[in-house]
Amino acid sequence: MSDYILVLDEGTTSTRAMLFASDGVLVASAQEELTQHYPRSGWVEHDAAEIWDKTLKCANAVIPKAGGAAMIAGIGITNQRETVVAWDTSTGEPLTRAIVWQDRRTEPFCADLRDAGHEAEVQRRTGLLLDPYFSGTKMRWMLDNVPDVRAAADAGRLAFGTVESWLVFKLTGGGAHITDASNASRTLLMELAGEGFDAGLCDLIGVPHSALPAVTDMSGSLAQTDAALFGREIPITGLVGDQQAATIGQACLSPGQTKATYGTGAFVLTNQGETIPQSTNRLLGTVLMQIAGKRTYAIEGSVFVAGSLVQWLRDSLGILQEASETEALARSIETSGGVTIVPALSGLGAPHWNADARGVITGLSFASGKAEIARAALEAMAHQTHDLACAFAADGTAWETLRVDGGMAANNWMAQDLADMLGVPVERPDFVETTALGAAMLAAAGAGVYPDLESAAEAMRGKTKRFTPNMENAVREERLTRWRKALNAV
Ligand code: ADP
């Protein structure tokens, strides 16, 4: 039976192909690192041709393990969101390097738009803030600064897309120029409730509507691969941005259910059902799903520094060999001895949105050693998440349980501390590749392996471990008081 699902997981630092059986078990995977280009401070670029070549290489490495292309029911693609590729539709080749989501080069343009008073309306319509993070201003930058992009636009040969859109174009031999609604909702160019890209928003940002892909569902028969690639056509049945994928992979399919992914940064999404989010607390509104034309939404809070703080302790301070040592160090002492870290190493994200903030460590004494620093680093994750929890609650979305994943969520001390500080149970799946799993669920439902996404999630989600809150109020209050004092020092 052809019921394997092939997931192409397009991360920031690597591209992977993962083969799932229909019960959600990972059967095979292949991975290739992606070259990161940093041409200037604050600029981050990828080579889109390299992304395609490595994706194809990884796919070809795992397809034989299913017994060939005929055994694959559908392909799901999940991707680093907001990264923009520009290509020439006549040659099928990129016109310039892709601008990566982390890139800050469009801040002056965003500041101009903010100064001109556009932010409130843009937020109301798109759920987003005028920040370089989102893809629309990156497209505008390419048009203004890369002559080949402008020339292709003038000649009607320009295509813009996020990474899933680029890969669908290549996988279909240039036959399809589409994007899914979750990726489209990160561009600043689509209204949360709008069917496709919005002409008025395109005019405001300065992006030609004609260069943009068609906005599609995230699950279903979305496109077919070129038969020449894998020996036969394979249907592409799932397309989804990485954070939405993780939310689905954690089976947060009902309103109020929340997941937090702790990787380099931390991304928290709460399912809002069919209600269009309107945050008054600097959180983002985003499309969670579009299936059979029906949309559901999520409210999102992004923290810039999570696991990268632990990386900094390891690589810059040199007080760790491995990130995982933080767990034993944190357990080796009763408290951090008053040491508090605000990890604003690249500014503060939600809900503070302070780009100029820089990190601080407070409460140092001669008794402070590496255990105190490591514990304070892990405590900072719960502190940052607590700030988000307050913003979500103020927006009317209090969390009942928090489902965690990402590399850092492997840390048991941190998972327990999160439960303690938030005062809600924390659940962690044994299989932590929730992003790939979410794409697999969408693709399996889209291929008809399951009748709908709920059944796919039921069948494919594995076991979870639960961390129950167990902290005295006084201890929690003391921690939060210290944190708020330290925040005032950034
Ligand atoms: P990304 O997908 O953003 O590349 P991952 O989900 O792979 O990130 O998570 C890796 C991050 O998590 C690294 O920054 C690392 O420092 C941190 N990390 C990994 N394992 C642990 C651990 N056991 N304790 C604390 N931090 C960890």
Integer-rounded radius of gyration: 22 Å
Distance N terminus to C terminus? Answer: 58 Å
Helix amount, in percent?
25-40%
Q: Characterize the largest beta sheet: strand count, sense, and whether it forms a barrel.
A: 7 strands, mixed
What does this structure look like?
- This protein is an alpha/beta fold and 490 residues long.
- The protein has 17 helices and 21 strands.
- The strands form six sheets. The chain has a seven-stranded mixed β-sheet, sandwiched between helices. A six-stranded mixed β-sheet has the order 3-2-1-5-12-11, with helices on both faces.
- The chain is globular.
- 52% of the residues are buried.
- The mean pLDDT is 94.
- Adenosine-5'-diphosphate binds next to helix 11 and helix 12.
- Adenosine-5'-diphosphate is lined by residues 11, 13, 263-264, 307-308, 310-311, 323-324, 326-327, 406-408, 410-411.
Give a quick set of tags describing it.
seven-stranded mixed sheet, alpha/beta, 17 helices, 490 residues, binds adenosine-5'-diphosphate
Gist?
With 490 residues, this protein is an alpha/beta fold. It has helices spanning 48-62, 107-115, 119-126, 136-145, 147-154, 163-171, 181-184, 199-205, 227-230, 242-249, 307-317, 325-331, 370-394, 412-422, 434-446, 453-460, 473-487; strands at 4-10, 14-20, 26-33, 45-46, 72-79, 85-88, 98-99, 158-161, 178-180, 214-216, 219-224, 235-241, 258-262, 266-273, 284-291, 294-303, 340-342, 360-362, 402-405, 426-429, 464-467.
